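Hi all, a correction to my earlier message: I attached the wrong file for Putative transcription factor 25. Here's the right sequence:
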Amino acid sequence: VVQSEQAKKRGRGGRVYGRSGILVQGRNWSHIGKPGISMELVETRGEVHHFTFEHSKAYQAIQFQFLDAVETFNPDNIVALLNIHPLHVDSLIQFSDVCKMGEDLQMAAELIERALYCLESCFHPLFNVTQGTGRLDYRRPENRSLFLALFKHLHFVGQRGCPRTALEFCKLLLGLDPENDPLCATLMLDYFALRADQYQYLVRLYQEWEPSRNLSQLPNFAFSTFSYFFFNTDAAGFLCWQLQDSLIMFPGVLTPLLDKCGIQPDAEVSKHHFFGLAAQAQQSPALSQLVSLFVGRHFGLWKEPEVLAWLERNVRVVLQRVDRGDPLVADSEAKRKRRYQGATPRNISRHILLSNIKEANLTLPQDLANAPIFGFDPLPPVDNIVSYTRPPRWESGMGQSPYLWGHMVSAFFRSLLPSFNLPREVVGIAVDDRLVPGNDDGDLQHEDIGGAAGIANDGAPHVVDAGDLRRSVTSLLEAMRDLLNNIHLPSDAPNDGDMDSDDEHED
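and the right structure:
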Protein backbone atom coordinates (compact mmCIF):
# COMPACT_ATOMS: atom_id res chain seq x y z
CA VAL A 1 0.00 0.00 0.00
CA VAL A 2 2.81 2.39 0.91
CA GLN A 3 4.61 1.68 -2.36
CA SER A 4 1.37 2.19 -4.28
CA GLU A 5 0.78 5.55 -2.63
CA GLN A 6 4.36 6.59 -3.31
CA ALA A 7 3.98 5.67 -6.95
CA LYS A 8 0.78 7.71 -7.20
CA LYS A 9 2.48 10.69 -5.59
CA ARG A 10 5.31 10.48 -8.09
CA GLY A 11 2.73 10.37 -10.85
CA ARG A 12 4.65 7.72 -12.65
CA GLY A 13 3.06 5.20 -14.99
CA GLY A 14 6.04 2.88 -14.94
CA ARG A 15 6.05 -0.42 -16.75
CA VAL A 16 4.42 -3.22 -14.79
CA TYR A 17 6.65 -6.29 -14.50
CA GLY A 18 5.49 -9.85 -14.20
CA ARG A 19 2.01 -9.42 -15.73
CA SER A 20 2.48 -11.54 -18.81
CA GLY A 21 0.95 -14.68 -20.21
CA ILE A 22 0.93 -14.50 -24.01
CA LEU A 23 3.95 -16.72 -24.63
CA VAL A 24 3.58 -18.91 -21.54
CA GLN A 25 1.16 -19.00 -18.66
CA GLY A 26 2.65 -18.02 -15.32
CA ARG A 27 1.08 -20.97 -13.52
CA ASN A 28 1.48 -20.29 -9.79
CA TRP A 29 4.78 -18.49 -10.22
CA SER A 30 5.37 -15.50 -7.99
CA HIS A 31 5.35 -11.92 -9.13
CA ILE A 32 8.93 -11.44 -10.29
CA GLY A 33 9.31 -7.72 -9.72
CA LYS A 34 12.01 -5.93 -11.66
CA PRO A 35 14.28 -8.64 -13.17
CA GLY A 36 17.17 -6.40 -14.20
CA ILE A 37 16.36 -6.72 -17.92
CA SER A 38 14.66 -4.06 -20.02
CA MET A 39 13.69 -3.73 -23.67
CA GLU A 40 14.43 -0.51 -25.49
CA LEU A 41 13.17 0.79 -28.83
CA VAL A 42 16.17 1.35 -31.12
CA GLU A 43 14.46 2.68 -34.24
CA THR A 44 11.27 2.52 -36.29
CA ARG A 45 11.25 1.90 -40.04
CA GLY A 46 7.76 2.27 -41.40
CA GLU A 47 5.56 -0.07 -39.39
CA VAL A 48 8.50 -2.17 -38.16
CA HIS A 49 9.99 -1.46 -34.73
CA HIS A 50 13.54 -2.54 -33.90
CA PHE A 51 14.19 -3.33 -30.23
CA THR A 52 17.01 -4.54 -28.06
CA PHE A 53 17.22 -6.03 -24.59
CA GLU A 54 19.47 -4.28 -22.07
CA HIS A 55 20.95 -5.58 -18.82
CA SER A 56 21.21 -3.48 -15.70
CA LYS A 57 24.52 -3.21 -13.88
CA ALA A 58 23.33 -5.69 -11.26
CA TYR A 59 22.23 -8.17 -13.92
CA GLN A 60 25.56 -7.80 -15.70
CA ALA A 61 27.31 -8.84 -12.50
CA ILE A 62 25.10 -11.94 -12.33
CA GLN A 63 25.87 -12.67 -15.98
CA PHE A 64 29.60 -12.57 -15.22
CA GLN A 65 29.08 -15.04 -12.39
CA PHE A 66 27.16 -17.29 -14.76
CA LEU A 67 29.94 -17.25 -17.35
CA ASP A 68 32.44 -18.14 -14.66
CA ALA A 69 30.19 -21.01 -13.57
CA VAL A 70 29.86 -22.30 -17.14
CA GLU A 71 33.62 -22.29 -17.60
CA THR A 72 34.01 -24.72 -14.70
CA PHE A 73 32.00 -27.34 -16.63
CA ASN A 74 30.31 -28.15 -13.33
CA PRO A 75 26.50 -27.80 -13.33
CA ASP A 76 26.54 -27.66 -9.52
CA ASN A 77 27.77 -24.09 -9.89
CA ILE A 78 24.82 -23.20 -12.12
CA VAL A 79 22.44 -24.70 -9.57
CA ALA A 80 24.10 -22.63 -6.86
CA LEU A 81 23.65 -19.49 -8.96
CA LEU A 82 19.98 -20.30 -9.62
CA ASN A 83 19.50 -20.78 -5.90
CA ILE A 84 20.44 -17.11 -5.43
CA HIS A 85 19.02 -15.75 -8.70
CA PRO A 86 16.20 -18.17 -9.68
CA LEU A 87 15.17 -16.19 -12.75
CA HIS A 88 18.53 -15.62 -14.40
CA VAL A 89 17.62 -16.38 -18.00
CA ASP A 90 20.83 -17.88 -19.37
CA SER A 91 21.20 -20.11 -16.31
CA LEU A 92 17.69 -21.43 -16.88
CA ILE A 93 18.43 -22.11 -20.55
CA GLN A 94 21.76 -23.80 -19.85
CA PHE A 95 20.47 -25.99 -17.05
CA SER A 96 17.48 -26.97 -19.18
CA ASP A 97 19.94 -28.76 -21.46
CA VAL A 98 21.37 -30.61 -18.45
CA CYS A 99 17.86 -31.74 -17.48
CA LYS A 100 17.16 -32.82 -21.04
CA MET A 101 20.38 -34.83 -21.03
CA GLY A 102 19.16 -36.46 -17.83
CA GLU A 103 15.85 -37.30 -19.59
CA ASP A 104 13.85 -35.10 -17.25
CA LEU A 105 11.96 -33.41 -20.07
CA GLN A 106 9.28 -32.00 -17.80
CA MET A 107 11.79 -29.99 -15.78
CA ALA A 108 13.72 -29.02 -18.92
CA ALA A 109 10.52 -27.62 -20.46
CA GLU A 110 9.58 -25.80 -17.25
CA LEU A 111 12.96 -24.10 -17.06
CA ILE A 112 12.52 -22.78 -20.61
CA GLU A 113 9.01 -21.59 -19.76
CA ARG A 114 10.37 -19.71 -16.77
CA ALA A 115 12.98 -18.06 -19.00
CA LEU A 116 10.26 -16.98 -21.46
CA TYR A 117 8.07 -15.76 -18.62
CA CYS A 118 10.88 -13.57 -17.33
CA LEU A 119 11.71 -12.19 -20.78
CA GLU A 120 8.07 -11.51 -21.61
CA SER A 121 7.68 -9.50 -18.42
CA CYS A 122 10.28 -7.09 -19.82
CA PHE A 123 8.71 -6.55 -23.25
CA HIS A 124 8.39 -2.98 -24.48
CA PRO A 125 4.76 -1.77 -24.81
CA LEU A 126 5.21 -1.53 -28.59
CA PHE A 127 6.64 -5.06 -28.89
CA ASN A 128 3.53 -6.95 -29.95
CA VAL A 129 4.14 -10.62 -30.71
CA THR A 130 0.76 -10.98 -32.42
CA GLN A 131 1.43 -8.33 -35.09
CA GLY A 132 4.88 -9.46 -36.22
CA THR A 133 6.25 -5.92 -36.36
CA GLY A 134 8.94 -6.28 -33.69
CA ARG A 135 12.54 -7.05 -34.66
CA LEU A 136 15.58 -8.07 -32.61
CA ASP A 137 19.21 -8.16 -33.72
CA TYR A 138 20.74 -11.57 -32.99
CA ARG A 139 24.21 -10.05 -33.07
CA ARG A 140 23.52 -8.51 -29.65
CA PRO A 141 24.12 -11.16 -26.94
CA GLU A 142 21.30 -9.79 -24.78
CA ASN A 143 18.77 -10.57 -27.54
CA ARG A 144 19.78 -14.18 -28.13
CA SER A 145 18.08 -15.54 -25.03
CA LEU A 146 14.63 -14.91 -26.52
CA PHE A 147 15.56 -16.57 -29.82
CA LEU A 148 16.98 -19.64 -28.08
CA ALA A 149 14.18 -19.93 -25.53
CA LEU A 150 11.55 -19.78 -28.29
CA PHE A 151 13.43 -22.39 -30.34
CA LYS A 152 13.62 -24.81 -27.43
CA HIS A 153 10.08 -24.08 -26.25
CA LEU A 154 8.44 -24.77 -29.60
CA HIS A 155 10.15 -28.16 -29.74
CA PHE A 156 8.86 -29.07 -26.28
CA VAL A 157 5.39 -27.92 -27.33
CA GLY A 158 5.58 -29.99 -30.51
CA GLN A 159 6.64 -33.07 -28.56
CA ARG A 160 3.56 -32.67 -26.35
CA GLY A 161 1.32 -33.11 -29.42
CA CYS A 162 0.53 -29.43 -30.06
CA PRO A 163 1.85 -28.86 -33.60
CA ARG A 164 -0.37 -25.85 -34.32
CA THR A 165 0.97 -24.03 -31.25
CA ALA A 166 4.52 -25.02 -32.22
CA LEU A 167 3.89 -23.61 -35.70
CA GLU A 168 2.79 -20.26 -34.26
CA PHE A 169 5.92 -20.10 -32.11
CA CYS A 170 7.98 -20.95 -35.18
CA LYS A 171 6.37 -18.03 -37.04
CA LEU A 172 7.16 -15.77 -34.10
CA LEU A 173 10.79 -16.93 -34.06
CA LEU A 174 11.15 -16.25 -37.77
CA GLY A 175 9.45 -12.87 -37.39
CA LEU A 176 12.07 -11.62 -34.93
CA ASP A 177 14.61 -11.44 -37.77
CA PRO A 178 13.11 -12.74 -41.03
CA GLU A 179 15.90 -11.36 -43.21
CA ASN A 180 18.78 -13.18 -41.49
CA ASP A 181 16.85 -16.02 -39.79
CA PRO A 182 19.69 -16.64 -37.29
CA LEU A 183 18.28 -19.98 -36.05
CA CYS A 184 16.99 -21.09 -39.47
CA ALA A 185 13.35 -21.36 -38.51
CA THR A 186 12.72 -21.81 -42.25
CA LEU A 187 14.15 -25.32 -42.02
CA MET A 188 11.37 -26.48 -39.67
CA LEU A 189 8.47 -24.18 -40.57
CA ASP A 190 7.18 -26.59 -43.22
CA TYR A 191 7.38 -29.54 -40.82
CA PHE A 192 5.13 -27.99 -38.21
CA ALA A 193 2.79 -26.71 -40.93
CA LEU A 194 2.40 -30.28 -42.21
CA ARG A 195 1.81 -31.70 -38.75
CA ALA A 196 -0.77 -29.00 -38.04
CA ASP A 197 -2.53 -29.63 -41.39
CA GLN A 198 -1.87 -26.04 -42.44
CA TYR A 199 -1.39 -26.94 -46.09
CA GLN A 200 -2.73 -23.73 -47.57
CA TYR A 201 -0.42 -21.67 -45.38
CA LEU A 202 2.54 -23.78 -46.53
CA VAL A 203 1.69 -23.37 -50.20
CA ARG A 204 1.11 -19.63 -49.81
CA LEU A 205 4.43 -19.22 -48.02
CA TYR A 206 6.18 -21.17 -50.77
CA GLN A 207 4.61 -19.13 -53.54
CA GLU A 208 5.37 -15.79 -51.90
CA TRP A 209 8.95 -16.54 -50.86
CA GLU A 210 10.16 -18.72 -53.70
CA PRO A 211 11.02 -15.81 -56.06
CA SER A 212 13.22 -14.07 -53.50
CA ARG A 213 14.48 -16.92 -51.27
CA ASN A 214 14.61 -19.95 -53.60
CA LEU A 215 12.82 -22.23 -51.15
CA SER A 216 12.83 -24.98 -53.77
CA GLN A 217 16.58 -25.31 -53.18
CA LEU A 218 15.92 -26.50 -49.63
CA PRO A 219 15.12 -30.25 -49.54
CA ASN A 220 12.48 -29.77 -46.86
CA PHE A 221 10.42 -27.34 -48.95
CA ALA A 222 11.08 -29.20 -52.20
CA PHE A 223 9.41 -32.30 -50.77
CA SER A 224 6.94 -30.78 -48.31
CA THR A 225 4.88 -28.59 -50.60
CA PHE A 226 3.32 -31.69 -52.17
CA SER A 227 1.16 -32.33 -49.12
CA TYR A 228 -1.59 -29.85 -49.98
CA PHE A 229 -2.05 -31.50 -53.36
CA PHE A 230 -1.72 -35.09 -52.18
CA PHE A 231 -5.38 -35.32 -51.19
CA ASN A 232 -6.57 -33.22 -54.12
CA THR A 233 -7.30 -35.55 -57.04
CA ASP A 234 -7.62 -32.63 -59.45
CA ALA A 235 -3.96 -31.79 -58.83
CA ALA A 236 -2.65 -35.37 -58.89
CA GLY A 237 -0.75 -34.86 -62.13
CA PHE A 238 0.97 -31.72 -60.89
CA LEU A 239 1.79 -33.49 -57.64
CA CYS A 240 3.58 -36.40 -59.35
CA TRP A 241 5.51 -34.01 -61.54
CA GLN A 242 6.61 -31.98 -58.53
CA LEU A 243 7.75 -35.01 -56.56
CA GLN A 244 9.66 -36.39 -59.54
CA ASP A 245 11.47 -33.10 -60.03
CA SER A 246 12.35 -33.00 -56.33
CA LEU A 247 13.78 -36.52 -56.50
CA ILE A 248 15.83 -35.54 -59.54
CA MET A 249 17.09 -32.43 -57.77
CA PHE A 250 17.89 -34.28 -54.53
CA PRO A 251 18.54 -37.97 -55.36
CA GLY A 252 20.48 -38.36 -52.12
CA VAL A 253 17.24 -38.09 -50.13
CA LEU A 254 15.65 -41.39 -51.19
CA THR A 255 17.97 -44.02 -49.69
CA PRO A 256 18.37 -42.47 -46.20
CA LEU A 257 14.63 -41.68 -46.10
CA LEU A 258 13.71 -45.29 -46.85
CA ASP A 259 16.28 -46.55 -44.35
CA LYS A 260 14.84 -44.29 -41.66
CA CYS A 261 11.33 -45.54 -42.46
CA GLY A 262 12.52 -49.15 -42.23
CA ILE A 263 11.86 -49.84 -45.92
CA GLN A 264 14.19 -51.94 -48.05
CA PRO A 265 14.24 -50.67 -51.67
CA ASP A 266 14.21 -53.24 -54.42
CA ALA A 267 17.34 -54.11 -56.37
CA GLU A 268 16.40 -51.95 -59.36
CA VAL A 269 16.47 -48.85 -57.20
CA SER A 270 19.36 -49.67 -54.84
CA LYS A 271 21.72 -50.73 -57.65
CA HIS A 272 20.91 -47.85 -59.98
CA HIS A 273 23.68 -45.27 -60.11
CA PHE A 274 21.26 -42.39 -59.66
CA PHE A 275 19.88 -43.47 -56.27
CA GLY A 276 22.63 -45.80 -55.08
CA LEU A 277 25.74 -45.16 -53.02
CA ALA A 278 27.07 -42.85 -55.71
CA ALA A 279 24.27 -40.37 -55.01
CA GLN A 280 25.40 -40.16 -51.39
CA ALA A 281 29.09 -39.88 -52.21
CA GLN A 282 28.59 -37.08 -54.73
CA GLN A 283 26.74 -34.81 -52.30
CA SER A 284 28.65 -31.87 -50.92
CA PRO A 285 28.91 -31.64 -47.10
CA ALA A 286 26.54 -28.67 -47.04
CA LEU A 287 23.87 -30.52 -49.01
CA SER A 288 24.36 -33.65 -46.89
CA GLN A 289 23.55 -31.62 -43.79
CA LEU A 290 20.31 -30.29 -45.29
CA VAL A 291 19.31 -33.78 -46.43
CA SER A 292 20.08 -35.28 -43.02
CA LEU A 293 17.99 -32.60 -41.32
CA PHE A 294 15.06 -33.26 -43.61
CA VAL A 295 15.21 -37.04 -43.22
CA GLY A 296 15.69 -36.97 -39.45
CA ARG A 297 12.81 -34.55 -38.91
CA HIS A 298 10.27 -35.55 -41.59
CA PHE A 299 10.58 -39.32 -41.89
CA GLY A 300 7.53 -39.93 -39.71
CA LEU A 301 5.36 -38.10 -42.24
CA TRP A 302 6.47 -40.49 -45.01
CA LYS A 303 5.75 -43.77 -43.23
CA GLU A 304 2.06 -43.86 -44.18
CA PRO A 305 1.41 -46.79 -46.57
CA GLU A 306 -0.36 -44.64 -49.17
CA VAL A 307 2.50 -42.12 -49.18
CA LEU A 308 5.13 -44.86 -49.57
CA ALA A 309 3.18 -46.45 -52.42
CA TRP A 310 2.90 -43.07 -54.14
CA LEU A 311 6.63 -42.49 -53.62
CA GLU A 312 7.48 -45.90 -55.09
CA ARG A 313 5.49 -45.23 -58.26
CA ASN A 314 7.21 -41.93 -58.86
CA VAL A 315 10.68 -43.33 -58.16
CA ARG A 316 10.21 -45.78 -61.00
CA VAL A 317 9.14 -42.95 -63.30
CA VAL A 318 12.24 -40.98 -62.30
CA LEU A 319 14.49 -43.94 -63.18
CA GLN A 320 12.87 -44.06 -66.62
CA ARG A 321 13.47 -40.33 -67.10
CA VAL A 322 17.11 -40.72 -66.03
CA ASP A 323 17.67 -43.62 -68.42
CA ARG A 324 16.08 -41.63 -71.26
CA GLY A 325 18.49 -38.75 -70.66
CA ASP A 326 15.97 -36.18 -69.44
CA PRO A 327 17.67 -32.73 -69.65
CA LEU A 328 16.49 -31.91 -66.13
CA VAL A 329 18.85 -34.53 -64.72
CA ALA A 330 21.99 -32.82 -66.04
CA ASP A 331 20.61 -29.38 -65.20
CA SER A 332 19.90 -30.42 -61.59
CA GLU A 333 23.38 -31.92 -61.21
CA ALA A 334 24.91 -28.65 -62.38
CA LYS A 335 22.80 -26.71 -59.88
CA ARG A 336 23.88 -28.97 -57.01
CA LYS A 337 27.53 -28.48 -57.85
CA ARG A 338 27.11 -24.72 -58.11
CA ARG A 339 24.81 -23.95 -55.19
CA TYR A 340 25.95 -26.23 -52.38
CA GLN A 341 29.69 -25.70 -52.38
CA GLY A 342 31.69 -23.98 -49.68
CA ALA A 343 31.20 -23.88 -45.94
CA THR A 344 27.78 -24.33 -44.38
CA PRO A 345 26.26 -21.00 -43.26
CA ARG A 346 26.63 -20.43 -39.55
CA ASN A 347 22.91 -20.20 -38.93
CA ILE A 348 22.35 -23.66 -40.44
CA SER A 349 25.09 -25.14 -38.25
CA ARG A 350 23.49 -23.42 -35.25
CA HIS A 351 20.14 -24.96 -36.20
CA ILE A 352 21.67 -28.44 -36.42
CA LEU A 353 23.23 -28.13 -32.97
CA LEU A 354 19.98 -26.95 -31.40
CA SER A 355 17.78 -29.50 -33.18
CA ASN A 356 19.80 -32.42 -31.84
CA ILE A 357 18.94 -34.68 -34.77
CA LYS A 358 21.43 -37.53 -34.73
CA GLU A 359 21.70 -37.91 -38.50
CA ALA A 360 22.48 -34.21 -38.91
CA ASN A 361 24.86 -34.01 -35.94
CA LEU A 362 27.11 -36.61 -37.54
CA THR A 363 27.53 -34.37 -40.60
CA LEU A 364 28.94 -31.42 -38.67
CA PRO A 365 32.36 -30.27 -39.91
CA GLN A 366 35.45 -31.12 -37.90
CA ASP A 367 36.12 -27.55 -36.81
CA LEU A 368 32.75 -27.41 -35.05
CA ALA A 369 33.14 -30.90 -33.64
CA ASN A 370 36.38 -29.83 -31.94
CA ALA A 371 34.89 -26.73 -30.30
CA PRO A 372 32.84 -26.65 -27.09
CA ILE A 373 29.24 -25.58 -27.65
CA PHE A 374 26.99 -24.29 -24.90
CA GLY A 375 23.21 -24.23 -25.02
CA PHE A 376 22.85 -20.63 -23.84
CA ASP A 377 24.79 -19.27 -26.84
CA PRO A 378 25.69 -21.83 -29.53
CA LEU A 379 27.98 -20.55 -32.27
CA PRO A 380 27.88 -16.81 -31.52
CA PRO A 381 27.92 -14.61 -34.63
CA VAL A 382 31.36 -13.52 -35.75
CA ASP A 383 30.11 -9.91 -36.00
CA ASN A 384 29.01 -9.58 -32.37
CA ILE A 385 27.68 -6.23 -31.19
CA VAL A 386 29.00 -6.09 -27.65
CA SER A 387 27.42 -3.62 -25.25
CA TYR A 388 29.43 -4.64 -22.19
CA THR A 389 32.39 -6.92 -21.54
CA ARG A 390 33.57 -9.05 -18.66
CA PRO A 391 36.06 -7.36 -16.37
CA PRO A 392 39.61 -8.75 -16.15
CA ARG A 393 39.62 -11.80 -13.94
CA TRP A 394 42.19 -14.07 -12.37
CA GLU A 395 43.54 -16.68 -14.78
CA SER A 396 44.54 -20.13 -13.60
CA GLY A 397 48.05 -21.46 -13.89
CA MET A 398 47.00 -23.17 -17.09
CA GLY A 399 47.04 -19.77 -18.77
CA GLN A 400 44.14 -20.72 -21.00
CA SER A 401 40.38 -20.51 -20.78
CA PRO A 402 38.54 -23.75 -20.13
CA TYR A 403 36.65 -23.05 -23.35
CA LEU A 404 39.66 -24.49 -25.17
CA TRP A 405 39.55 -27.86 -23.51
CA GLY A 406 37.64 -30.00 -25.94
CA HIS A 407 35.06 -30.44 -28.62
CA MET A 408 31.36 -29.90 -28.16
CA VAL A 409 30.16 -33.37 -27.24
CA SER A 410 32.83 -34.26 -24.70
CA ALA A 411 32.58 -30.77 -23.22
CA PHE A 412 28.89 -31.23 -22.63
CA PHE A 413 29.42 -34.64 -21.01
CA ARG A 414 32.17 -33.13 -18.90
CA SER A 415 29.69 -30.47 -17.76
CA LEU A 416 27.67 -33.31 -16.25
CA LEU A 417 30.57 -35.31 -14.84
CA PRO A 418 34.03 -33.69 -15.04
CA SER A 419 35.82 -37.05 -15.08
CA PHE A 420 33.81 -38.43 -17.96
CA ASN A 421 35.71 -39.33 -21.15
CA LEU A 422 33.54 -39.77 -24.23
CA PRO A 423 34.51 -42.61 -26.58
CA ARG A 424 35.09 -42.02 -30.25
CA GLU A 425 32.36 -44.51 -31.12
CA VAL A 426 29.76 -42.38 -29.32
CA VAL A 427 30.84 -39.16 -30.95
CA GLY A 428 30.95 -40.64 -34.42
CA ILE A 429 33.91 -38.47 -35.45
CA ALA A 430 37.63 -38.55 -35.01
CA VAL A 431 38.88 -36.96 -31.81
CA ASP A 432 42.35 -35.55 -31.65
CA ASP A 433 44.45 -35.39 -28.50
CA ARG A 434 43.47 -32.26 -26.61
CA LEU A 435 44.39 -30.30 -23.56
CA VAL A 436 42.43 -31.02 -20.43
CA PRO A 437 42.79 -29.81 -16.85
CA GLY A 438 45.82 -31.32 -15.25
CA ASN A 439 46.84 -31.86 -11.65
CA ASP A 440 46.14 -29.51 -8.79
CA ASP A 441 49.38 -27.69 -9.46
CA GLY A 442 48.00 -26.37 -12.73
CA ASP A 443 50.13 -28.45 -15.11
CA LEU A 444 48.74 -29.41 -18.50
CA GLN A 445 48.33 -32.99 -19.51
CA HIS A 446 47.21 -34.66 -22.73
CA GLU A 447 44.26 -37.00 -22.67
CA ASP A 448 43.92 -39.78 -25.20
CA ILE A 449 40.38 -41.00 -25.62
CA GLY A 450 40.32 -44.56 -26.86
CA GLY A 451 37.37 -46.93 -26.80
CA ALA A 452 35.42 -46.71 -23.60
CA ALA A 453 38.37 -45.91 -21.37
CA GLY A 454 40.42 -42.82 -20.63
CA ILE A 455 44.11 -43.01 -19.81
CA ALA A 456 45.11 -42.10 -16.28
CA ASN A 457 48.27 -40.26 -15.44
CA ASP A 458 50.10 -43.53 -14.82
CA GLY A 459 49.14 -44.87 -18.24
CA ALA A 460 46.65 -47.40 -16.93
CA PRO A 461 43.21 -47.38 -18.50
CA HIS A 462 40.54 -45.81 -16.35
CA VAL A 463 37.10 -47.13 -17.24
CA VAL A 464 34.25 -44.69 -16.70
CA ASP A 465 31.31 -46.23 -14.89
CA ALA A 466 28.09 -45.25 -16.64
CA GLY A 467 26.32 -45.63 -13.32
CA ASP A 468 28.41 -42.80 -11.89
CA LEU A 469 27.20 -40.54 -14.67
CA ARG A 470 23.56 -41.46 -14.09
CA ARG A 471 23.87 -40.99 -10.34
CA SER A 472 25.54 -37.61 -10.83
CA VAL A 473 22.83 -36.40 -13.19
CA THR A 474 20.08 -37.77 -10.96
CA SER A 475 21.42 -36.01 -7.88
CA LEU A 476 21.65 -32.73 -9.81
CA LEU A 477 18.09 -33.02 -11.07
CA GLU A 478 16.80 -33.81 -7.60
CA ALA A 479 18.57 -30.75 -6.24
CA MET A 480 17.15 -28.59 -9.02
CA ARG A 481 13.65 -29.96 -8.53
CA ASP A 482 13.87 -29.14 -4.83
CA LEU A 483 15.08 -25.66 -5.70
CA LEU A 484 12.19 -24.98 -8.10
CA ASN A 485 9.62 -26.28 -5.65
CA ASN A 486 10.88 -24.03 -2.88
CA ILE A 487 11.21 -20.73 -4.72
CA HIS A 488 9.09 -18.20 -2.83
CA LEU A 489 9.52 -14.74 -4.24
CA PRO A 490 7.75 -11.80 -2.63
CA SER A 491 4.19 -11.51 -3.85
CA ASP A 492 4.56 -7.76 -4.28
CA ALA A 493 8.15 -7.29 -5.28
CA PRO A 494 9.08 -3.65 -5.53
CA ASN A 495 9.34 -2.11 -8.93
CA ASP A 496 12.07 0.29 -7.95
CA GLY A 497 15.54 -0.20 -6.67
CA ASP A 498 15.54 -3.93 -6.02
CA MET A 499 18.08 -4.66 -8.71
CA ASP A 500 19.23 -1.34 -9.93
CA SER A 501 18.80 2.33 -9.25
CA ASP A 502 18.02 3.09 -12.89
CA ASP A 503 14.71 4.79 -13.55
CA GLU A 504 11.93 2.68 -14.97
CA HIS A 505 10.62 3.27 -18.43
CA GLU A 506 7.50 5.23 -18.88
CA ASP A 507 4.76 4.17 -21.26
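Sorry for the mix-up. The beta strands are 37-45, 48-55, 134-136, 434-437, 444-447, 453-455, 461-463.
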